[in-house]
Amino acid sequence: MTSTRRILIVEDDSRAAALLSDFLHSQGYATSVVMNGLHVEPEVRRAEPALVLLDVGLPGLDGLEVCHQLRRFSSVPIIMVSGRVEEIDRTLGLEVGADDYVCKPFSPREIAARIKALLRRAEGRLAGATVLHGFRIDEGSRRIACDEQWLPLTPQEYRLLRRLLSRPGHVFSREDLADASDVSPNASFRAVDSHVKNLRRKIEAVRPDGCGIVSVYGAGYRFEPLQMEASATAG
Known about the structure:
With 235 residues, the chain is an alpha/beta fold. The protein folds into two domains: 2-127, Response regulator (Rossmann fold, 3-Layer(aba) Sandwich), CATH 3.40.50.2300; 130-234, Winged helix-like DNA-binding domain superfamily/Winged helix DNA-binding domain (Arc Repressor Mutant, subunit A, Orthogonal Bundle), CATH 1.10.10.10. The protein has helices at 14-26, 40-47, 63-70, 87-95, 108-127, 155-166, 174-180, 190-206, 226-234; strands spanning 6-10, 30-34, 51-55, 78-82, 100-103, 130-132, 135-138, 143-146, 149-150, 172-173, 213-216, 220-223. Strand 6 (130-132) and strand 7 form a beta hairpin. The longest helix has 20 residues, at 108-127.
């Protein structure tokens, strides 16, 4: 429901942030406000908002760099807000990973309408994604959801998990997974181990009863759906 969705407002003008927050509250959203670009990443990691309203002109770290920073680990929908009207600024915002771009001045109703449309679009992608063993895979946006929550995967983690999910029970060598996840040929296979460690942590944050990624000593890794794990344990 709308009332459970939290919008993170990143705006250094306290009056503008308060007005926007009040209006979004009236539309049924919860809100948080951050006023410094350096504080955005920690807040997104902590609160996992449904959407981020990100002003371009921020102290500490500008909005373009913040957006680029967020896209390294999160697929949260981002609407960039700016007083700059030049086409180059709009293009840069979209190139670093923003989903939409709004120029000031704007009305709170316009922002609310864009938020609603963007959340609906994100939910539509989730509903239409391929389902494999309890995971939803959106090939178009290269995202994977676990228990209806998008996992904050890096591109390499996405490719690695996609490969593991494609053949449950099959043992993939580290070399196989390095090729699948596009790990640099000069990197040690320990890089694969590091990606798997991060995948386990991210999945278990959503699904504490197990991530399904199993280590096979001396061989590599395989994915076991939870029901398969339970049967093996019972046997």
